[in-house]
């Protein structure tokens, strides 16, 4: 009996809503999601917007296969421990400056690392710092000299 009354009430509600030519559905309010802020790095008073290579998959891919980087853009490789990581220009289409970072400071710079199209993987030039580092920043070739970036410069991270 109660289910019959419920069914009649439901049908009556549908009839009333249909006769008004308008059905209003309740939707829960969605909270606005804040836009994800792009990570920023500041070196020598110059800011770069960076992509984070913070997983093994992103680190293996790096910037390979891309056509370019934004003028003040880069890719920051974040490692869980300090090590003498090796980099190469496999499948790269543009030259880079490789900035080796240790304890929040520029440690070394490999300027103007060139792509090597057609070179076998086993013959590609390997870039490696002289000591262990915890982060590596790749930027457009020439960026470090244009912005007077040198070993010892402080690197500030805003994620």
UniProtKB/TrEMBL annotation:
Q: Which PROSITE patterns match?
A: PROKAR_LIPOPROTEIN
The chain's coiled-coil residues are: none
**Record InterPro entries:** DUF192 (IPR003795), Saro_0823-like_sf (IPR038695)
Q: Where is the signal peptide?
A: 1-17
Keywords recorded for this protein, A-Z: Signal
UniProt keyword Methyltransferase, yes or no: no
Q: Which PANTHER family match?
A: UPF0127 PROTEIN MJ1496
Protein name per the record: DUF192 domain-containing protein
Naturally occurring in which organism (per UniProt): Candidatus Doudnabacteria bacterium RIFCSPHIGHO2_01_FULL_46_24
